[in-house]
Automatic annotation (TrEMBL):
The lineage of its organism: Bacteria, Bacillati, Actinomycetota, Actinomycetes, Kitasatosporales. This is ABC transporter ATP-binding protein. GO terms for cellular component: plasma membrane. SUPFAM superfamilies: P-loop containing nucleoside triphosphate hydrolases. Residues 338-347 have a biased composition (Acidic residues).
Length: 357
């Protein structure tokens, strides 16, 4: 949490105040420092987003063991986005997805999906949320479908389980089921049971099941994890088609680099927090040739925390603490050059850097 009293202007690592420097046509350093010290007007975080996670924490406790799966995670996903969530095993991806699906409850922080407060839902609201607001696709193909129902019957089942007031008539349920199967390229397998389908076909039917009740968001946990490369591409193409033609917001957890590069936005999680975000756009040259341009960003959470990737910190031996300097158009991060002297007992008051309290 930021201190109530802002720090005085000037370089915090310097014994003397820094003179303001101006850039032609731009603000001076004094202007920037005054702006940084002025509290911003309160605005709800992510007030225009469909999924809002704010300082989300999830702690698992066992016999004398405590595991922090999420450590103050922030995430915003806007309506209509197709977003990939990537990270190493144990980074917190599946924990986050279970919370967003209403299958788990965070230990602290806040999480909202389509206006639902996931920490405040009672049992009845949680059931309605899971049936109507979110759709879910599991990694294991056998977990998504009932083996004794046909593909069309599996897709129609969620519609039959909705509240009587909003339930479609049987002919309408059957028509919607076949429309979804047709959209995802498996309409000709509508009357087959899961055992008669390939793994890729089963997962495309599972996507149709997740879309059955027209949810606000579909969550997919490693939907291509058990498939070969070609089949995985077919399943992900089905997800992209659902996103493009139905406008459904889709959040996919994946280890597959081939999948994560096919979305406009990829969010990486490290140590229970969002660490980097990659945005992709398509550009065209004068001859009409297109290419995809990717740019990776470090994410800055609401507490002002920034995770610097190891490929930046290790070559410069950045660890424990660093020096920050506010410049006209950027923030400079440097190694603490007093660390060795402090360890040797040096107390030179004129050396730049923070002094012991």
């Amino acid at each position: 949490m930021a201190p109530d009293t802002p720090p005085p202007p000037g370089n915090p690592g310097s014994a003397h105040p820094r003179e303001p420097r101006s850039t032609e046509g731009g603000p001076t350093l004094a202007d920037l420092e005054r702006r940084a010290a002025t509290p911003a007007p309160h605005r709800p975080a992510g007030d225009d987003a469909l999924i809002v996670c704010d300082r989300l924490v999830r702690i698992f406790r066992g016999d004398d063991v405590e595991v922090q799966a999420l450590q103050g995670l922030d995430l915003l996903v806007r309506e209509g986005e197709l977003t990939a969530l990537v990270g190493a095993s144990g980074s917190g991806k599946s924990t986050l997805l279970n919370i967003l699906a209403g299958l788990d409850v965070p230990s602290a922080g806040s999480a909202h999906v389509a206006g639902y407060d996931l920490l405040a839902m009672d049992a009845r609201t949680r059931l309605r949320y899971r049936r109507q607001v979110v759709g879910f696709v599991w990694q294991r193909t056998a977990r998504n479908l009932l083996p004794y129902l046909t593909a069309a019957q599996n897709v129609a089942l969620p519609m039959e389980l909705t509240a009587r007031r909003g339930r479609l008539r049987r002919p309408d349920r059957e028509r919607r089921a076949r429309e979804l199967l047709d959209l995802l390229g498996v309409a000709d397998h509508a009357d087959r049971r899961p055992a008669q389908l390939s793994g890729g076909q089963q997962q495309r039917v599972a996507v149709a099941v997740a879309l059955a009740n027209d949810p606000a968001v579909v969550l997919a946990d490693e939907p291509t994890g058990e498939l070969d490369t070609a089949t995985a591409a077919e399943v992900f193409a089905a997800l992209r088609r659902a996103n493009a033609e139905l406008g459904t917001t889709i959040l996919v957890v994946t280890h597959d680099a081939g999948v994560s590069t096919q979305v406009r936005r990829t969010v990486a999680i490290r140590d229970g927090r969002t660490s980097t975000e990659t945005l992709r756009s398509v550009t065209a040259d004068g001859q009409g040739r297109t290419r995809t341009v990717s740019r990776e960003y470090a994410t800055l959470d609401r507490a002002g925390r920034l995770q610097l990737p190891p490929e930046f910190t290790e070559p410069l031996s950045l660890r424990d603490r660093v020096l920050l300097e506010l410049c006209p158009d950027h923030i400079q991060v440097r190694a603490d050059d007093t660390a060795d002297d402090t360890a040797d007992g040096a107390t030179d008051d004129t050396r730049e850097g923070p002094r012991p309290a």
